[in-house]
Design goal:
The complex is a heterodimer of chains A (373) and B (606).
Chain A (H helix, E strand, L loop, with lengths): L6 E2 L3 E7 L12 E7 L4 E7 L17 E8 L3 E6 L4 E6 L4 E7 L4 E8 L4 E2 L2 E2 L2 E7 L2 E6 L4 E5 L7 E3 L7 E8 L2 E6 L3 E6 L9 E4 L7 E6 L6 E6 L3 E6 L8 E4 L5 E6 L6 E6 L4 E6 L47 E5 L8 E7 L2 E6 L3 E5 L5
Antiparallel strand pairs in A: 1-30, 2-3, 3-4, 4-5, 6-7, 7-8, 8-9, 10-11, 12-13, 13-14, 14-15, 16-17, 17-18, 18-19, 20-21, 21-22, 22-23, 24-25, 25-26, 26-27, 28-29, 29-30
Chain B lengths: L1 E3 L6 E7 L2 E7 L21 H18 L11 H21 L4 H19 L6 H12 L3 H11 L9 H10 L3 H14 L4 H12 L12 H20 L7 H10 L3 H6 L1 H4 L2 H12 L8 H12 L8 H10 L3 H11 L4 H12 L2 H4 L5 H17 L5 H9 L5 H9 L7 H13 L3 H17 L3 H11 L2 H18 L5 H4 L10 H17 L3 H13 L8 H13 L6 H9 L2 H21 L8 H7 L1
Helix pairs in contact in B: 1-2, 1-17, 2-3, 3-4, 3-15, 4-13, 5-6, 6-7, 6-10, 7-8, 9-10, 13-14, 14-15, 15-16, 17-19, 19-20, 19-21, 20-21, 22-23, 23-24, 24-25, 25-27, 27-28, 28-29, 29-31, 30-31
Classes of the chains: A mainly beta (373), B mainly alpha (606).
Subunit structure (chain B): Component of the nuclear pore complex (NPC).
Subcellular location (chain B): Nucleus, Nuclear pore complex
Function (chain B): Functions as a component of the nuclear pore complex (NPC).
Chain lengths: 373, 606
């Protein structure tokens, strides 16, 4: 990738997220939000890449993102999600969770609601590490090992699961509308059923070997039992949460912490990971390969090594997750680097349609508008 | 240079000599002014626009360190030139955004450009002049503005700036544009057509050296002299005497000193004057002769009224190929180390510092990089950039990094992880341990035992892991149950980090087995815990108390096994004996006869 252009933004970028586009329209995303960290004054900013009719775009990186508006943010922006078209939820290192509202007419951002100290220690602030939303519900997790549930329209906090974890919870994602999955710094995945009142997870999965801290998690868009996690040592794990403990597939991805992992929302044969080692990888698996897949509807032969399972006769291929059969040595899994080498840590990425945006500690944003998916 | 020391009101001066830098206190302020007070040492680090400069140049710097290591040095020049151009384009990019600091950045770019031409590209005679012409043209943009103004007017040839534009073009050697402008004038004066045609001919025939052609410098010189003589003939013939402007231009083409000095306003600077004079008098000037002309031109141009600015002495030092002086002057005049650090590093890569036989050769590069990087480290965000600079300072970089990295505040776990990764990649084990200890202690203080354990595992800190395990065991002793079962039940291989931790994990496993009524397994585990001697002393009573109900189970513990293990640990043996007596008493009271202890035990230890 020689023709990659970086937009330098004078702030270390901790999170980048596309604003959602309506599923019915086939538009490519135009607007993304970024959060900064490690500044005395951190900011949440909105940018536009304004698709000018797509004329004359030779390589995917043309057209600088333009700043639309920004707003000061108290503390590092440790996570950022779009609640809906106009509202953004942020997780702060001060332990607060904030809803920001974008006013397109005046092109400004304002604070719509704030839950300060949602995460805290008895005598100190505890950073809120991750937030996930399914409007109007918001779930946040933090270094205090607490899970907090909010509703966007309610003042106070909906529910708190105290002492959900004795270590830091690094990331959270929805598994179903009533179930969330968290990952922590002792290498465990925990499933929580929000309908139940108890303070313990419904299931715990962990790696069989070293308990490497897990930093990020993402669920397969179509198959609710398939989940990908990224760890401190840069390994990518694919899990089937219906199964017992161990991950189904384990791949060496990066040489340092993996900060984010994302399945492509509409083309889940594609997966993207970014890491402290400065690389952003695009993983592509083909579900229509000739190689036998190991997990299919009928038998539950978990384990990566066995290759004797036969591919089903036909028809059921769409139900098979190609991710569950993979290890990187097989030819049906391709990886490619998407950035020039020698960048500082890539902290965040987001992909929607054919567009990918990522932010680095080198204070640069990269936008690729022609991701091959 | 002097800095005001706020506390004492005195000033600080420094002088830079070979191998040393002397800093002294003085009551006297420096003479003259620094280039522009807008950039001060601490503030410019915090300017958001300059941050882009720092980040983009960091990227270029890292790329430069690994450029073509396998390629022979003479083939590296194009790469170095290209890298030099990259640096300059970064400066220009910042200039576009930063109107206020433009004057500083313009000056920096001017100096860097000249250094590139003279030192990095090291143009030989012939090409040298062409590069210098480009240099001057790039930094004298007002000509084009004037031209636009003139051309947009109704009758350009009658505009009051018209002749200024034409002369400016000639002074910059832009003959084509001059010719095009003159056509407009010619059209206004059909009677003088012959004169204009002559001028046009002279201009079109002006020779410019073409480095790509097969023509040698000597051949070019001959052709040039020929042309020069032709122009002189036209002047002597009074061919242009009826038009003062054209005659003036003719004199310029001959490089007439007085005429050139009349154009002071149009030239603007002595170095423009220098290049123009070289263009019309010595186009084949050799690099080594430059400084003669530079000195004399500067003297001629600046009369006694104008003050020589720091920029002038820097440029003069460049023309004299005194790299050392250039760097020294720049360091003093510019309060920011950015420029000298990056330029010196590039020059060092071009092997230019060594050849000048400096007293501290490549140490100069390292000194400047260390200063720059140390400055970056004081910034709350830019410390990450500094790491790469320290990496490429072979002598002191590591020491500096080790000292500085420990001072980075660790407000969140994510930041601590990044700092830790920097240390681990460089095998700075002491710093790794210290950072992990800080984070683990903080976690422990906030009762986040899992986090604390996670940090001690990362540092492989057995002592801390032991500390955490003691906390757990204390909790258990006071409350009777374990906290954070999710952690203890899932320790995995990290259990082996410390004995106490292993004990904790195994002890919890014992409880689990007991709870699941796998009594024989539980008992075996308990026995092994006792024999393995990893239980803390405070826990032995607890262990034995746990053993009690198991002793009542028929098949579980053979007293022989229990006593045999107790033989190896005298105190344990004593306790074991007490336990056995207790159990016998219990049996006696409940009437359950299970077994009788072997008499030998009783006799030996009672």
């Amino acid at each position: 990738m020689e023709s990659v252009n970086a937009k330098y933004v004078s702030q270390k970028v901790s999170r980048t997220r596309w604003r959602p586009v309506s599923v019915s329209s086939f538009q490519q995303p135009e607007i993304f939000a970024t959060g900064s960290w490690d500044n005395e004054d951190n900011k949440v900013s909105l940018w536009s890449i304004g698709n000018y009719g797509g004329l004359g775009m030779e390589d995917g990186f043309e057209g600088d993102p333009q700043l639309l508006c920004d707003i000061k943010h108290d503390g590092d922006v440790l996570d950022l999600q779009f609640l809906d078209q106009e509202r953004i939820v942020t997780a702060s290192s001060t332990g607060g969770v904030t809803i920001l509202r974008h006013h397109p007419n005046s092109q400004t951002l304002s604070v719509s609601h704030q839950w300060e100290r949602a995460h805290r220690y008895p005598c100190d602030n505890a950073p809120c590490t991750s937030v996930v939303c399914s409007s109007p519900e918001i779930v946040s997790v933090g270094e205090d090992g607490r899970i907090v549930v909010f509703r966007a329209d309610q003042e106070g906090v909906c529910r708190v699961i105290e002492n959900a974890d004795s270590s830091t919870i690094h990331a959270v994602t929805y598994l179903r509308t009533t179930e969330v999955l968290t990952v922590n710094s002792i290498g465990q995945l925990k499933l929580w059923d929000l309908r139940q009142q108890g303070g313990s997870p419904s299931k715990i999965l962990s790696l069989s070997g070293d308990r490497v801290p897990l930093h990020c998690v993402d669920r397969h868009p179509n198959q609710q039992h398939v989940v990908a996690t990224g760890g401190q040592d840069g390994t990518l794990c694919i899990w089937d949460v219906r199964e017992e403990s161990s991950p189904v597939a384990l791949m060496e991805a990066h040489s340092a912490e993996m900060w984010e992992v994302h399945f492509h929302p509409t083309n889940p044969d594609h997966l993207f990971t970014c890491s402290e080692d400065g690389s952003l990888l695009h993983w592509e698996t083909s579900s229509h390969s000739d190689m036998p897949s190991l997990l299919h509807e009928g038998s539950r032969n978990s384990g990566v090594t066995s290759r004797s399972a036969m591919a089903p006769a036909g028809g059921n291929k769409s139900l098979i997750s190609a991710w569950l059969s993979g290890d990187s040595s097989k030819s049906c899994l391709k990886t490619s680097h998407m950035l020039p080498s020698q960048t500082l840590s890539v902290n965040s990425l987001d992909v929607l349609g054919q567009c990918l945006v990522c932010g680095t500690d080198g204070e640069a944003i990269f936008v690729n508008r022609q991701v091959l998916v | 240079m002097s800095d005001l020391d706020i506390s004492t009101g005195k000033h600080m001066g420094f002088a830079w000599g070979p191998g040393d830098i002397l800093v002294y206190e003085t009551l006297y302020k420096a003479k003259g002014t620094c280039m522009d007070p807008l950039i001060r040492k601490d503030e410019d680090i915090y300017s958001p626009i300059l941050r882009k400069l720092f980040n983009e140049s960091h990227h270029i710097f890292v790329g430069l360190q690994t450029v073509g290591e396998d390629v022979p040095s003479k083939n590296k020049k194009p790469q170095f030139v290209s890298i030099s151009k990259n640096y300059r384009s970064v400066i220009r990019a910042c200039m576009e955004e930063l109107q206020q600091l433009v004057s500083i950045l313009l000056a920096i770019e001017l100096i860097w450009n000249l250094c590139e031409v003279l030192f990095i590209d090291a143009a030989p005679a012939g090409s040298l002049l062409l590069h210098l012409l480009d240099w001057v043209r790039l930094h004298k943009a007002d000509v084009d503005e004037k031209t636009r103004e003139v051309l947009q007017s109704e009758s350009p040839a009658e505009h009051h700036n018209y002749w200024d534009v034409v002369v400016s073009y000639v002074l910059q050697g832009r003959v084509e544009e001059a010719r095009q402008m003159l056509v407009k004038q010619a059209n206004l004066h059909p009677a003088a057509r012959g004169m204009f045609k002559l001028m046009d001919k002279l201009l079109s025939k002006m020779p410019f050296y073409n480095p790509r052609s097969t023509q040698t410098l000597t051949e070019f010189d001959v052709i040039w002299r020929h042309w020069h003589e032709e122009v002189d003939r036209c002047l002597q013939d009074n061919s242009f005497s009826s038009n003062q402007h054209l005659e003036f231009i003719c004199k310029i083409l001959l490089g007439d000193e007085d005429s050139l000095l009349e154009c002071k306003d149009l030239l603007g600077t002595w170095y423009h004057f220098l290049v123009t004079r070289l263009l019309f008098c010595h186009p084949t000037v050799k690099p080594t002769d430059l400084h003669y002309y530079a000195q004399s031109c500067m003297t001629m141009f600046l009369d006694s009224r104008s003050v020589s600015e720091p920029l002038d002495s820097i440029l003069l030092a460049s023309f004299e190929f005194d790299i050392h002086q250039v760097i020294k002057d720049c360091s003093i005049v510019l309060n920011n180390w950015w420029f000298v650090a990056h330029l010196t590093d590039l020059l060092d890569h071009c092997k230019l510092l060594q050849s000048h036989n400096l007293h501290f050769g490549s140490n100069l590069r390292e000194f400047l990089l260390l200063e720059y990087a140390s400055g970056l480290f004081t910034h709350h965000s830019l410390w990450q950039l500094a790491v790469d600079y320290f990496d490429h300072c072979p002598e002191f970089g590591r020491v500096y990094l080790e000292l500085q990295i420990e001072r980075v505040p660790l407000e969140t776990e994510r930041k601590a992880l990044k700092v830790l990764r920097v240390c681990e990649e460089r095998q700075m084990s002491e710093q790794v341990r210290s950072i992990c200890k800080i984070m683990a202690t903080r976690a422990l203080r906030n009762n986040r035992l899992g986090s604390a354990l996670s940090w001690s595992i990362r540092a492989k800190d057995a002592a801390f892991a032991t500390l955490i395990s003691e906390r757990f065991l204390q909790d258990y002793s006071t409350r009777g149950t374990f906290s954070d079962l999710d952690l203890i039940d899932n320790l995995g291989p990290s259990m082996l980090l410390s004995n106490r931790l292993t004990f904790l994990g195994k002890y919890r496993e014992f409880h689990r087995l007991y709870g699941q009524k796998h009594f024989s397994k539980a008992a075996k585990l308990l026995l092994s815990l006792m024999t393995a001697k990893i239980a803390p002393q405070s826990f032995w009573m607890t262990l034995l108390t746990d053993a009690l109900p198991l002793l009542e189970q028929k098949e579980v513990i053979s007293p022989h096994a229990l006593s045999s293990c107790s033989k190896s640990v005298p105190i344990l043996a004593h306790a074991t004996a007490s336990t056995l007596r207790l159990s016998r008493r219990v049996q006696g009271e409940t009437g359950q006869a299970a077994y009788a202890p072997p008499p030998s035990v009783e006799l030996e230890y009672l």
